[in-house]
Write a structure and sequence with these properties.
Strand content: 5-15%
Order of helices and strands: EHHHEHEHEHEHEEEHHHEEHEHEH
Radius of gyration: 21 Å
Shape: globular
Distance between the termini: 22 Å
Helix content: 25-40%
Bound molecules: pyridoxal-5'-phosphate
Number of strands: 12
Length: 378
């Protein structure tokens, strides 16, 4: 089967770049290809594309352009936030959750010999226990709290306004990994005043791979992990990825123009998908939160134990349907997902993560259900 005819339900891992985004990028590779640090017109054109993008992002997030630092994506942004908090803010403790992305968990583990690392309790839906969180914040001044805005595997959304209000009462810096929510939900950083750092990544909203940004609130000290030139307010040395920045800006512009429409369409598609799955497989279990507490883009499900369990994503792939076994970063390994483990899901129930975009259709949902029926009827 030609890849163009295949069905893609793995949009939380990465999304197809939109044609308009691709066309926006080309001039910065072919015409205005100067180094943005050069003072001639080729450089100035490139620099101007970067600054226009920064301004647009700041307008959308309701923050200042100088608070946006371009990075290579979510992983680097998360690293930059954590390493900055440790080296520049003199924190003593990092508070996080076992359900975070590996880009957080591995980075905080790096400091396990020198700092106090604490994990907030979560329930079986992946929801943070807010009273436990408050106790941790109270007992551990000078800490960094890093909690994701929404979980990339099980779709559970953090009540970010409540956490924002909670951290206001304590001596704590707050970082949120918004990789799965930025451009899918509106985020207003002038309301969420107690967020010091926020990470985003373009390939999760139909922009290019290898580009993202970290919001660093004015007055919050940070350090560069990459030493060299003075780019990005000396916080990220190296020639900027101009075409990718311009592409990300275009993807953001389109996402925001279509935000309501996409939200409505994808939410209804997720509802149809859920209903059809349950009517075909009544014993099915949903991993993570449901309804408003859950991302409208992700559905993580487990089926009762079955002989074909190891093979589920592989069997679907053979039928031309791409899904994920959990987080893309851990797929390929046979290990049970750290997120599913943290919420106590059973590892003998074969699970898949289905993640949707506005480009998916009801026909594709129907083909998925038919394919699953064939696999489980074998
Ligand atoms: N954080 C979350 C929640 C993610 O879903 C991902 C990607 O899977 C990342 C971080 C890493 O982002 P990137 O692929 O841009 O490094």
């Amino acid at each position: 089967m030609d890849i163009k005819e295949k069905i893609y339900f793995d949009n939380a891992a990465s999304t197809p770049i939109l044609e308009e985004v691709m066309y926006e990028m080309i001039p910065y590779m072919r015409i205005a290809y100067g180094n943005p640090s050069s003072t001639h017109s080729f450089g100035r054109e490139a620099k101007s594309a970067i600054e226009i993008s920064r301004k647009n992002i700041a307008r959308i997030l309701n923050c200042k352009p100088a608070e946006i630092i371009f990075t290579s994506g979510g992983t680097e942004s998360n690293n930059l936030a954590i390493h900055s908090a440790v080296s520049a803010l003199d924190i003593k403790t990092i508070i996080s959750a076992k359900t975070e992305h590996k880009a957080i968990l591995k980075t905080i583990e790096f400091y396990s010999d020198t700092l106090n690392i604490l994990y907030v309790d979560i329930n079986s839906k992946g929801e943070v226990d807010l009273s436990h969180l408050e106790n941790l914040l109270k007992e551990n001044p000078k800490s960094l709290l890093t909690l994701m805005h929404a979980n990339n595997e099980i779709s559970t959304i953090l009540p970010i306004e409540k956490v924002n209000d909670l951290v206001a009462k304590y001596d704590v810096y707050f970082h949120t990994d918004a990789v799965q929510t930025f451009c899918h939900y509106k985020i207003d950083l002038s309301d969420l005043k107690n967020i010091q750092f926020l990470s985003a990544s373009a390939h999760k909203f139909h922009g290019p791979k290898g580009i993202g940004f970290l919001f660093i609130r004015k007055g919050t000290k940070a350090i560069s992990m990459i030493k060299g030139g003075a780019q990005e307010r000396q916080l990220r040395a190296g020639t900027e990825n101009v075409s990718a920045i311009a592409g990300m800006n275009k993807a953001i512009e389109i996402a925001y123009n279509e935000l309501e429409e996409r939200t409505k369409y994808i939410s209804s598609l997720k509802n149809i998908l859920t209903e059809k799955l349950f009517s075909a497989f009544p014993e099915l279990k949903i991993n993570g939160a449901e309804g408003e507490q859950s991302l409208y883009t992700i559905l993580n499900i487990s089926f009762p134990p079955h002989d074909n369990r190891e093979m589920l994503p592989f069997s679907l792939d053979l039928k031309g349907i791409a899904v994920s076994e959990g987080s893309a970063c851990s797929s390929g390994s046979t290990q049970f997902s750290h997120v599913l483990k943290a919420i106590g899901s059973r590892d003998d129930w074969p699970g898949i993560r289905l993640s949707l975009s506005h480009l998916n259709t009801i026909e594709e949902v129907e083909q998925l259900i038919d394919a699953l029926k064939e696999i489980f009827e074998k």
